[in-house]
Amino acid sequence: MATHAATFPRPNVSHGNDVWLPAFTLWWREIVRFYRQRSRVIGVIASPLLFWIVIGSGFGTSFRSESNGAGGQHYLDYFYPGALIMIVLFTSIFTMMSVIEDRKEGFLLSVLVAPVSRSAIVLGKVMGGTTLATIQGLIFLAFAPFVGVHIGFGALALVALTVFLVSFALTALGFAIAWPMDSSQAFHAIINLFLIPLWLLSGALFPLSGASGWLRFLMRINPLTYGVQALRDLLYPASQGNVSLSESLATLVLFSLFMFGLAFIMVNRRSTRPAA
Amino acid sequence: MALRTPALPLTAGSHPHNAASSVIISVQNLVHRYDSRIALNGVSFEVRRAELFGLLGPNGSGKTTMFRILSTLMVPAAGRAVIAGFDIAKEPSQLRRQIGVVFQSQSIDVKLTAYENLMHQGHLYGLRGKPLKSRIHEMLSHVGLADRANEKAETFSGGMQRRLELAKGLLHHPSVLLLDEPTTGLDPGARIDLWRYLQILRDEEQVTVIVATHLMDEANKCDRLAFLNEGKLVALGTPTDLKEEIGGDVIVLEAKDPESLAEKLSMRFNIATQVLQGQVRIEREHGHRFITEVVEAFPGDIDSVSVSKPSLEDVFIRRTGHRFWTESAPARTELEKR
C-alpha cells in the first residue's frame, strides 16, 4: 500500500527531526512575535521596575517595624525575591494565552495537521514562554545591586537556573490550562484562581516560619515556595532557610517535569471532537 | 492577478500514464457523531489520483465533518478512510506528509513575513536549509508573491493572504490538497485565478484536489462531486452526468395557490409535480413546448413561468426533496455552534 506514497519527488526530508526542528520553529515564532509587538517589549522591561518600586516601597513603609524574618532586613529586601517570582509567574502563565489565540485564528490547525509530534508543540510553545519569562526575570535582577545584593558568577548562574525552572513549570501549567479553552476570558478566570494564592503562599510576602499550622502546610506543598526559597538562599547567603538549596532545586526540577507531563497529556488527547 | 504556471521540471516524467486512474482516497462507511447528533451517517466514495473532487453540501450536511476527518483533525466514530495508502485513524503522521490542507479560517501568522510563514511551515514538515529556501522562492513565485516575500502578511490584501495560505499548503509537495471553502472572502477575479491554479496543479503536478464547498458554480468546475445532505451521500458523479439524469428541462411556475395548481397539473397531464417554497416544479423534456400547453390550460392560475436546463441545485432537489438552502437551516445553526 505504501508504494502510493513514494510517487512524488520531494525535497530531502529527514524523518528524525519531527520533534526538534518543529519545536525550534515554534519557539522561534514566539520570540519573533514578541519583539514585533512593541507594547509587549515595553511591558516586559518596565513592569518589573514598577512592581518592585510601587509594591515594595508601599509594603516597606507599612511593615517596617516588624522587621521580618530573616535577620532584620528592610522589607524591600525581603520582598525582592518574591517580586522576582511574581514577575516570572505572570509573564510565564500569560504568554500561554497565545495558545488560545492560535486556536482562534486557525494557526494551530495548520500545526495540528502537520506531521509534528505533539511533544514538539508543547516543547516549542512552552520554551517560547519560558524564554520570555526568564529574560524578564533576569532584567529584574539588574536591580539587585540596589537592594545591596552583589552576586558572583556562580550564584548568578544558579539564580538564572532557578528562574528558568520556575518559568518552565509555570508556562507548562499555563499551557495545560489554555489548551482545552476557547476563550481568553475563561483563561483569565481560571488563572486568577490559581495565580494569586500560589504566589501569596510562596513565602514571597511573609516567611514560612511566621505562618500558622494549616497555612504552613499549604506553603510547604506549594512548589513556588521552593523557587522563592532558592532565590533567597542565593541572593542572601546569610539568611537561614529551612530547606537546603539543592532540595529546593530538586523540587523545582520535579515540578517542571510534572507540569510538562501534564501539558503533554492534554495535547495528546486526540479526540473525536473538533480540534478547533 | 498573478498565479503563475508551476515549473514543469518538478514533475515531468515522474508519473506513469495510468496514474490518473488509480484510487488515492478511499472512504468507507464513515460515521461520526457529535454527542448524540449524527453528522456523518455511513458515507463511502473514492477519489482518483489527479482528480479535482468536490465535496458539496449545504451547511450542516456533514461536509465540514468530512473535511476535518480527512485532514486528520478528528478520528471518525466508525468506518475507514485511507489516503495514499495510509489509514487516517492508525497512521496519521505518515498520512500528514501526504496531504496539504488549506483551511477556511486564516492559518498564516500575520506578524510574520510571507517568507517567514513558509519557512516556519517548512520546518514543521522537516524541510530545512537550501532545499527549503529554493522551494519557498519557487512557491512564492507560483502564487505571485515573490516581490512581497519580506513584507508582513498583515499588510497583504485578502486575496494575497489566501494565496499565501495556498503556498503554505503546497510547500511540502503533498499528493493530496484539501481546501475548505477556499474562495470565501475573495473577489470574483481572485476566485477565477484560484480555480485556474487548482486546475494547473491537477494537470501539471498530478495533485489530487479536494474542495469542500457550498457554492454550485464552484462545484460545476470539479471533475466529480460527492453531494452530501444530512450526513448522507445523496449523489456522486461528474456534474454533467448528474445533471443529465434529470433529463429535459426544469420548469418552475409561480402561482397564488401552488398546491391546487400542482394537483390540477398532475391530473390533467399525468406528470409528477413538486411544491417548494410556493413554487410548482416540474421536470420535463421539451419544456418550452410544454409550458404553452400549461399556460393555455390554466391561464388564470399562473403568475410566472420559467424554463431552464437542470442545474446542480435541481439534482439536489431531486435527490433530497428539498431546496439546497432552506430546509436544513436548523441543522446548520446547530453544527456551527461547535
Topology:
The complex is a heterodimer of chains A (276) and B (338).
Chain A: H1 20-36, H2 38-63, H3 75-95, H4 97-105, H5 107-112, H6 118-141, H7 153-178, H8 184-200, H9 213-221, H10 223-235, H11 245-267
Chain B: E1 23-34, E2 37-48, E3 52-56, H1 63-70, E4 78-83, E5 86-87, H2 92-98, E6 99-102, H3 114-124, H4 129-142, H5 158-170, E7 176-180, H6 188-205, E8 208-213, H7 216-219, E9 224-229, E10 232-237, H8 239-244, E11 249-255, H9 258-269, E12 274-276, E13 279-284, H10 287-297, E14 302-308, H11 312-320, H12 329-336
Parallel strand pairs in B: 3-8, 3-9, 6-7, 7-8
Antiparallel strand pairs in B: 1-2, 1-4, 4-5, 9-10, 11-13, 11-14, 12-13
Helix pairs in contact in B: 3-4, 4-5
Descriptive notes:
The complex is a heterodimer of chains A (276) and B (338). Chain A has helices spanning 20-36, 38-63, 75-95, 97-105, 107-112, 118-141, 153-178, 184-200, 213-221, 223-235, 245-267. Chain A is mostly helical. The radius of gyration of chain A is 21 Å and the shape is globular. The two termini of chain A are 31 Å apart. Residues 1-15 and 65-71 of chain A have low confidence and may be disordered. Chain B contains 12 helices and 14 strands. In chain B, strands 6-7-8-3-9-10 form a 6-stranded mixed beta sheet, with helices on both faces. A 4-stranded antiparallel beta sheet of chain B has the order 2-1-4-5, covered by helices on one side. In chain B, strand 12 (274-276) and strand 13 (279-284) form a beta hairpin. In chain B, helix 3 (114-124) crosses helix 4 and helix 4 packs across helix 5 (158-170). At the A-B interface, helix 1 and helix 5 of A face strand 1, helix 2, helix 3 and helix 4 of B.
